[in-house]
Amino acid sequence: MAATDTLHTEEHRIGSQRAEAIIPVTILTLLGGLTLGIHWRDATPTVSIPRRTLPSPNAFDDFRSATEQMPAGRSQAVADALWANLKVPTYNPRQAKQTSEAMRAELVRQYAPALARLRAGLEHSYGEPPARSFPRIYPHLARFRELSLVLRLEEQVRAARGNWAGAMESSLDSIQMGARAAEGNTLISALVGAAIQTIARKDSWEIAEHLSGSEAHTAVQRLERIRKERFPYWRTLEEEKWATLTGLLEIMRCPDWQERYTKAMIDAGQPIAPRNPTTLAHLVTTSKGTLVNEFSAYMDRSIAHARAPYAKRSAPVPLPANALVRMVVPRYERVQFTMTKSEVLNDLLLLSLALRAYQAEQGQPPRALSALVPHYLKALPEDAFAPDGRVRYRVERGRPLLYSIGPDAADDGGRPVRGKRASADPAVRHMVVADSTGDIVAGVNVL
Questions:
Q1: Around 21, how many Cα atoms within 13 Å sit in the side-chain half-sphere?
Q2: Fewer beta carbons within 10 Å, N or C terminal of the chain?
C-alpha cells in the first residue's frame, strides 16, 4: 500500500513538472504566433513597378515650356474674351466683359510665343513622367487647358477674318494636344485630355463647311495622323494601377500607415464612413499584403475588361468586398465612356471633313461612305458604340446625315440625343451622357 502511494505521489510530481513546462511553451508559442501575425500584417510587400522610358526630345517638355511662356495674369481675360459671346454650362456669360475682335486678336498675340513652342512640341513624341505618389499634383494640366482656350480664341479670330483653314488648324492643334495629354498617364490626365478635345471640337463642324476641297483634304490627313496616336483606355488603367501601387507602398513604409491611408482617401474625395463597423474591422484586420494583392487583382480584371470593344464589353467588374480596398479602386466606367465618346466625335469629325472634300470636288455628297476610300480616307473609322461597328450615313434632301448610334446601342434613324439640361446653347441641349438615348448626330451632338 505504501509502495502504491509512493508511486501515485511520484506520478503526480512528474505530471505537475510537465504541466509547468508546457504552460510557458504554450505562452511562447502563442506570443510567437501573435508576433508573426503582426509581422505578416505590417510587412510591406514587394511589388515590381515597371519603369517607363521617356522620348527625347519630349513633347511634354515643350508643352511645359509653352505654359511657362504664357503671359502672367491673363487667364481670366482669355476666359472673358472666349466665353463672352457663348453660353456654356460651366460659365455665366453675363459675368464676362464684352470684347472686340481687335481685343481678342491682341490677346492671341500676347500668347504667340507660347503657341509657337506648343506647336513645335506637336512634332515630337509625347511622354508624361509617370505619377508615382498619392499626392498627385498636376498643375500642368490646368495650364494645358488654358493653352487650349487660347487656341480656341485664335480659332475664333481666324474664322472672323475668313481664314477657315487657319481656324481648322487651331482646332486640330488643340485636339492633338488633348490627345497627347491623355496619353500614358492616369485617369485624371485622360479626363482633362478629353475636356481639351471637347473645347477644340465645338465649332469645328461649322468651320468644316467653309473649307475648300484641298483644305478639307489637308485637315483629313492631319486628323488621321492624330487618330494613329490614340492611346487605348486599358493602358490608362494600367498606368493608374502602377501609380496607385507606388502610392500605397509609399504610405505603408510609415508606422501609422492606416491613418495616412484613410486621410489620403478622404483627401482624394472617396466616400468613406470611418465609424462604419465593417470599415473599422477591415481597417484593423487587413494586412498590407492583402490590400496590395486584392487591389492588384481588381485592377487586372478591370484592365482585361477594358480591352474589349466598348460596344461588346460585359458587365462591369464587381467592386472588392473589402471596404479598405474599395476606398482606393477607381470608378472607371465613367472615364471609359468619356474617352469613348471623345473618340466617336473625333471619328465623326474626320468623316465630316472627308465628306466636305468629296462634295467640294464632286459637287454632291457620296451615296455611301465607302466612296470616300481610298482617295479621301485611308479607311473608314468604326462606331465604337455600335456592336457591328458601322457608322450610319444617308443623304437627306441633298445633305449628308452622319451619325453614331450612341451609348444606348440602338439605331434611332438619326434622331439626335436630347440632353437633360435646359440651355440657350443648342450644343448643351444636345449633350451626350452615358445613359442618353438617341443618336450622336455629326454637327448636332458636339458635346
A1: 6
A2: N
HSE toward the beta carbon, residue 414, CA cutoff 13 A = 10
Q: Are 107 and 175 in contact (CB under 8 A)?
A: no
C-beta of residue 415 within 8 angstroms of C-beta of residue 390: no
Q: Give, as one character, the DSSP assignment of residue 34.
A: H
List helix spans (H) across 122-256.
139-160, 164-181, 187-201, 204-208, 213-228, 233-252
- Compute CA distances 297 → 46, 158, 290, whole Å: 15, 51, 10
What CA–CA distances, in Å, run from 104 to 80, 93, 100, 379?
A: 10, 16, 6, 39
User: With 70 as the cut, is the pLDDT of residue 21 above it?
Assistant: no
From CA 233, how far away is CA 237, in angstroms rounded? 7
pLDDT(268) > 70: no
Higher pLDDT, 67 or 313: 67
How far apart CA 83 and CA 88 sit, in angstroms, is: 8
Residues across the chain? 447
Q: How far does CA 265 lie from the centroid of its chain?
A: 19
Between CA 387 and CA 403 the distance in angstroms is 14
| Helix, strand, or coil (residue 403) | strand
Cell matching residue 205: 463642324
Q: How many CB atoms lie within 10 A of CB 334?
A: 13
Sheet hosting strand 440-441, strand order edge to edge: 392-396, 399-404, 440-441
Mean pLDDT estimate for the chain: 82
Global pTM reads: 0.83
What SS3 class is residue 213?
helix
At 258 the three-state DSSP class reads: helix
Compute the radius of gyration of the chain from its Cα atoms.
Answer: 30
Number of C-beta neighbours around residue 8 at 10 A: 10
**9 Ramachandran zone, left/alpha/beta (phi>0; psi -120 to 50):** alpha
